[in-house]
Each structure stands twice: as structure tokens, then as C-alpha cells.
Amino acid sequence: MPRIVTAALAYVAPVFALAFVLGAIRVTLITPATGPLVAVALEIPLVLALSWWVAGRVLQRWPLTWQERAAMGALALGVLMLLECATAMAFGQTPAQFLQAMTTAPGALGLAGQIGFALLPLIRQPRG
Fold it and tell me: Can you spell out the DSSP letters for 3-18?
């Protein structure tokens, strides 16, 4: 089990870091010009592309069965959601507001991207 936890954390850390930076750019520069839905739609492919690359590196370092990959993706999604909620709280949102935001079109699109992030370890083959 520790191998799955290590792999999940190695997967989520760089993806969250990039998503944090892109989110700041999205909120401050892109959303005012395009609106929130288009801004999220522009951000998701970049985050998923990095997720694809990171998943390959992680699975090369820690080869996992498909069941372990599913667990890795689920754990990474859980950690990602906790990090996202903590970030929202740091910027003044309550957990209820964080969850409520997912019921909007941009929030639902972002959630779909996060679910895609969780599923990538199931389909990604190790690099090399």
C-alpha cells in the first residue's frame, strides 16, 4: 500500500503546482477577457497534458497493476480535492461555497477535468 500512496503523491504534487499557477493566470488574466467557462476550457487541456506526462513518469518509477493504478488515481483525486478546497478556503471561500461552485458550468467542467486526471493512470503506459 505505501507504494500506491507514494505514487499518488508523486502524481498529484506537480499537477497541483501547475494547476495553481495556471489557475492564478486564468482568474487574473483570462477570465476577465473570455468569461469563466472559456477560461476553464483553455486551462484543462494544459493540466491534462502535464498529468499524462507525469503519470508516465510515475508509472515508470513505480510499476503498478491496473487495480493499483485505479487506487492511485482515486487517492490522487482525493488529495487534489483536499488541496483545491484548502486553496479555496485560503482565498476566503467556505467548503460549502467550494462545493457549490462545482454546480456551475465552469465548475462542472473543472470537475470533469479532475475526474480525467484520476482516470489517466488507468490508461497511461509507463514512459520508455
Answer: HHHHHHHHHHHHHHHH
